[in-house]
Amino acid sequence: MTSETVILLGFNAIKMAIKISAIPLLAAMITGLIISILQASTQINEMTLSFIPKILSVIITILIFGSWMLRTFVEYMVSLLNQIPFMLGS
């Protein structure tokens, strides 16, 4: 196994992690932005007010996109496990 192979494996793992986590993170960011705009317009400065909507939006996002996220992770792991004999042979 060469250093290029290790770098490629690390790059693919990071790319897959970003791809999977992007949707829940975007949902939390958008929810936080909406709550912040509402807080600014109503002049309510409660820091804990945005916590529950963010958690709910992330949970709903995972419920909706969870099967895709799991399928993406499983496909990556299967391809990684299928590459092991070729990595050991070289």
What does this structure look like?
With 90 residues, the protein is mainly α. The protein contains 2 helices and no strands. The chain has helices at residues 3-42, 51-89. Helix 1 (3-42) runs antiparallel to helix 2 (51-89). The longest helix is centred in the N-terminal third of the chain and has 40 residues, at 3-42.
Quick take:
The chain is mainly alpha-helical and 90 residues long. The chain is 88% helix and 0% strand.
Largest sheet: none
Cα shape:
elongated
Into how many domains do the coordinates divide? 1
Number of strands: 0
- Beta content: under 5%
Helix segment count? 2
Cα-atom radius of gyration: 19 Å
**N-to-C SSE string, H for helix and E for strand:** HH
Poorly predicted residue ranges? none
How confident is the prediction overall: mean pLDDT?
91
- End-to-end Cα distance: 6 Å
Structural class: mainly alpha
Subcellular location: Cell membrane; Bacterial flagellum basal body
Organism: Wigglesworthia glossinidia brevipalpis
Transmembrane segments: 20-39, 51-70
Function: Role in flagellar biosynthesis.
Please write out the topology.
Blueprint: H1 3-42, H2 51-89
Helix pairs in contact: 1-2
